[in-house]
Each structure stands twice: as structure tokens, then as C-alpha cells.
Amino acid sequence: MDIWGFGIIAAGLALVVSVVLAAALRAGRAQAQSTASYDLQVYRDQLAEVERDLARGTINPEDAARVRTEVSRRILAADADARLPDDAAQSKGGTKALALGLAVLLLAGSAVLYWQLGALGYADQRLQARIAMAAERRAERPTQAQAEAAQPDAPQAQEENPEYAALIDQLRSAVAQRPDDLQGHVLLAQTEARLGNFAQAAKAQAVVLRLKGDDVTVADLTTQAELLIFAAGGYVSPAAEDALRRALNIDDTDGSARFYWGEMLIQTGRPDLGFRLWDGLLRAGPEDAPWMAPIRARIDDLAVLAGVNGYTPPQPNLRGPSQQDMDNAAGMTPQERMQMIEGMVSSLSDRLATEGGPATEWARLITALSVLGRQDDARAVLDNARATFDDNRGALDILTGAAEQAGLE
Asked: Which residues of 2-34 are buried (b: 16+ CB within 10 A; e: fewer)?
């Protein structure tokens, strides 16, 4: 329903309700006038009856005078009540003003409600119509080439090391001369991506997919989709969608493919389906997965678009001390407890240094070192962790949060 249709219906309903309420008020006043007039006639009849009883001698003059005084007082009161609603002009004007005020109030309330829940300029759309529009939008969206052509010209990436720049040029020339060199195209795709030449990287990765044939992996396909999306400025084109579909056909649980598939659904008018995918990824984890931070940044707004009211994202599932560790710490002195904490921190630090681990554990170590007052050690761990996860945006966001909590930034 458009705004004009809504306005006509709202105005009509406001008018009907206002008329009904005004009529009820006028009926109440009329009833009050009728009651007062009836009482006045009864008192006058009583006064006449007193005169008849006095003439017949059935009542003495003193009682007759007392009754006359009381009935006369009641007549004056009833006459005053009957005259109050008799002021026709005042009564009519007040009723009209009240009706007009009710109409204005109802219209204002309707306008506020439409402003909050409606969409100006849009007609009422049935669910099937919205789904059909989303399907049409998905089918008619721009191609990869059109999306890349619409991107602003980016400055050409320059390698500061002249020797390395020469090696890159040699790599490009060698790969161009050997179109069936699988490892050469893999290296070229990685190099172009590192330089920010995502369109060229995607072309090299497309050759990788062709050369691998049936041996292509989910990682190969999601890498291709990601390069195409980056080259299009975040837009999921039909070409990127095709790569994602192939990846999901191999493994429908792959988090990266599911994340970008959800992005495609959002872009093509199906935030409801995109929300389900992203909410599932949040609940599945792991917390240091690269898609977790961007999903958490947008999931609340997406829930509103999907029509999910009161949505609360699942809390991060960070690994903490075991129940046995907590039980052991309960009976310790402060000095023993501090020694235990330092031992756990040392053990975690050694394990991360030798075996590595997710960004959440590096963040825990940074926070723990800060609590122990070892700011320099926390800074060294932060730098080491950032170097380890330099290509993982989600992990870097987790580390930044830990650094802020530790007072390192």
C-alpha cells in the first residue's frame, strides 16, 4: 500500500472514530438534559399536590410551608441542571472542537506509525512478489566485467624493492609463455593478490582451476570467488556466485563459501536467507575465523532487515580455564594463586611459540601478561601475533581488541 492509499484509509478511520465519539458525548449530554427535565416536572407535580392537600385540610399550614420550601429548593437545583446543556451554541461548538481534536490526534498517530513501519514511495508487496523481485534482481545484476569497469581507478601498486619488482615482471613473462604451468599460475595469483591487483589475480586463479580440472579443491574455488569479489569492490557477481556454488557442492559446510554466499543473498534482496546463514556461522565458530568479525559488525542490522525482532548474537566462545583449574585455585593463598597464573601464562606462551594457535589464545595471553604487569612482554606477543595473522582480518580485529583491553593502544 502506498502512502496515498494509507493516508485515505487513515483519514477515513479517524473521521469515523471521531464522529462516533462525538455522538456518544452528545448523547450523554442529551440524556443528562432529559433526566433534569423529568425531575423538574416531578417536583412541580409535588408542589401542586401540596396545595391540593392543604385545600382538603389533610395537611396543616406549617407542614405545607416546610414542604413547599424543600420542593422549591429542589426545583431550583433541577432547573439549573437542565439549563447547563441547554446552551446549544456552546455545546455544539465544544463537541465539534473535541471531534476535530480527536481526528487530528488519530491522523498524527497514524502518520507516526507509518513513518516507523512503512516505506514511503513503495507499494504494498506480498511475500511471493518480493521473492520474485529478488530472483529477478539476482538474474539481472551486473556481470563481473561490468562491476570491475565501474570501480574507480586505483593507483598502480609499486614494489619498493627494485629487485623484487624485476622478479615480478619476470614471473609475469614466464607464466605468459607457459600457459600450462600450474605452479607458475598459482604463484602469479598469490603475487598479484598481494600487490592488490585482484582482477589480474583472479585471471591467474581461473587458469589454476582449469588446469586442476576435477582435482580442484574447495580452497581453490573460494579463493577464486574472493578474488573476483575484491576486484568488484565487494560485489558478488554471477561469476563469483558460480565459483561459490561449485565450492558448496563439494563441501556445503565451508565457512568462507557460506559467508560469501550469504553476502550474495543480502545483495540480491534476500536478507532473510542471508541472516540464517550468517547466524549459523556465528554459532558454529571458531571465533578466530576470518568471517566472524565482519558478521558480528553487521548481524544486528541484518536481523532488522530479515524481520527478526529482539535478536541477540551468540557470545564469543573463548576458551578459558578448566573447572579443575578453578577448583584448585579456590583453596590457594594469594601468593600460590599468582604462581599458578604465572605458570599457566608461561605454559600458554611456550605452546603458542612452538605450536601456534588461534587468535583468541594469543589475545588471552596478551591480556594475561597485561594483568601481571608485564606490558613489554604483552607488546612483544602482540607484535608477534600480528605478524603471524597479517593476512587474516578477523584475527587482527581480535588482537586489536585485546590490545585495547590491555592498554597497549
From this structure: ebeebeeebeeebeeebeeebeeebeebeeebe
Task: Please state, rounded to an integer, the average pLDDT across all residues of the chain.
Answer: 78
pTM of the full predicted structure? 0.53
3-state secondary structure 276-308: HHHHHHHHHCCCCCCCHHHHHHHHHHHHHHCCC
For residue 160 the three cell numbers come to: 619498493
The label of the residue with cell 579443575 reads: 324
Is the pLDDT at 166 greater than 50? The verdict is yes
Are the CB atoms for 314 and 282 separated by under 8 Å? yes
For residue 99, give the 3-state DSSP assignment: helix
CA angle, corner 308, sides to 6 and 240, nearest 5?
105
How many other C-beta atoms are found inside a 10 Å radius of the C-beta of residue 351? Answer: 13
Alpha carbon distance 314, 283 (integer Å): 6
Following DSSP, what letter does each residue of 323-381 receive, concatenated? HHHHHHHHTS-HHHHHHHHHHHHHHHHHHHHHH---HHHHHHHHHHHHHTT-HHHHHHH
Max mean pLDDT range (182-186, 374-378, 394-398, 400-404): 182-186
Cα Dmax for the chain: 142
Residue 369 is which amino acid? L
Instruction: Count Cβ neighbours within 10 Å for each residue of 258-276 and write b for 16 or more, e otherwise.
Output: bbbbbbbbbbbbbbbbbbe
